[in-house]
Amino acid sequence: MKKNILVTGGAGYIGSHTLVELYNSGYKPIVVDNLSNSSLNNIKGAEQITKSKIDFYKLDCTDFEQMNKLFEEQKNIDAVIHFAAFKSVEESVIQPDKYFSNNIGSLEILINLMNSHNVNNIIFSSSCTVYGSPEFLPVNELAPFGKAESPYGETKQLCEKLIQKSEINSISLRYFNPVGSHPSSLIGDCSADKPNNLVPIICEVASGKRKSMQIFGNDYNTPDGTCVRDYIHVVDLAKAHVMAVNHILNNTKIKTAYNLGVGKGLSVLEVIDSFQKVNNLKISHALGPRRAGDVEKIYSDNTKINIELGWFPVMSFESALETAWNWEKLKNL
Ligand code: UFG
Predict the structure, then answer these.
(1) Which of 149, 203, 216 for mutating ligand 1's site (highest number of atoms within 8 Å of CB)?
(2) Which residue among 31, 158, 261, 275 is least enclosed by CB atoms within 10 Å?
(3) Which domains does the chain have, with CATH numbers?
(4) 175 C-alpha vs ligand 1 centroid, how far in Å?
(5) Ligand 1 pocket test: which of 93, 125, 177 has the largest number of ligand atoms within 8 Å of its C-beta?
(6) Which residue has the CA at smallest separation from atom 21 of ligand 1?
(7) pLDDT in tens, 48-86
(8) CA distance linking residue 180 with residue 49, whole number of Å
(9) CA 181, CA 321: separation in Å to the nearest integer?
(10) What b-and-e string marks burial along 199-238, b requiring 16 or more CB atoms within 10 Å of the CB?
(11) From ligand 1's centre to the CA of 176, what distance in Å?
(12) Where does ligand 1 bind, in terms of residues with CB under 6 Å?
């Protein structure tokens, strides 16, 4: 019988890509999402790709009663992947309480319900932001949590600690910078938020939604002066979740965290340049001041997940930029 995986936030960007990979690997995903910053189209898209019906509950993870009903109805949940959370760094600075109550509150409810319904495995959607500005690069999982750059970052640190303290088996996946879309263009980033991440902004310049974009600082201590990040294709990221599920279901007493990045740093200018080449487009850009809270450079040491889960990134950065642009074009039709 197929194992049931409860996916909170499954109608979102990374969640919907993970539904497809779970299904393709023989799991039965069950989605809970309040659709506040995601889309039913992502569930429909995942159904089209997998040619299957996906169980969907339109629920808020902070609603204990409704979540309890879900756990009662779905008696055999084997593991939970918890994506549902607010994710705007910028908004979290303006409304920190909103981030603390939602991101931490929903996890507390989930752990509580998992305990009472005897569900013992959780994969948690974390972020490299937990490291703050790491002392050594590439950063590995032994690096301590750094000073949180934002309330959003602090919620990720607090959630990891909460999971660590619980009795539940857990894997925290620390994402670096997810980019791209499924090659079908049937699922993608549907956030209602105005984009403030680099590749979605480049796509908006490409589509004409924005006239131009700014590069936030070129006086960093990096080869071309602009910030360096580790960009990972969302399909590779989604596949890592399946490997994490395989691992947690086949082992007992797992409490760990993995970096999820390709292990290579790219500067802002290199990303813009590659996007222009791959998609044969000109992206109008100008140099601007530094953005508050930006880390100068961060990229991953992904050896731990290579060795322990056998996960390696296989998708190219070029295909991420191509599919990101394809998704943007379809979104605007
Ligand atoms: N950038 C620009 N211009 C823009 C947008 C971004 O120059 O218009 C630069 C940023 O300054 C940064 C790089 O592009 O140097 C990447 O910025 P993103 O906003 O795409 O990504 P971040 O690295 O800032 O943020 C990501 C995730 C967060 C997470 C953080 C941890 O989006 O969820 O990594 O470092 F918290």
Answers:
(1) 216
(2) 158
(3) 4-179+231-261 (3.40.50.720)
(4) 13
(5) 177
(6) 197
(7) 999 999 999 999 999 999 999 999 999 899 999 999 999
(8) 17
(9) 9
(10) bbbbbbbbeeeeeebebbbbebebeeebbbbbbbbbbbbb
(11) 10
(12) 87, 89, 127-129, 153, 177, 196-198, 201, 213-216, 227, 229, 268, 291, 294-295, 298
Residue nearest to atom 3 of ligand 1 (CA): 215
> Which residue has a Cα nearest atom 6 of ligand 1?
198
Tens-digit pLDDT profile for residues 133-161: 999 999 999 999 999 989 999 999 999 99
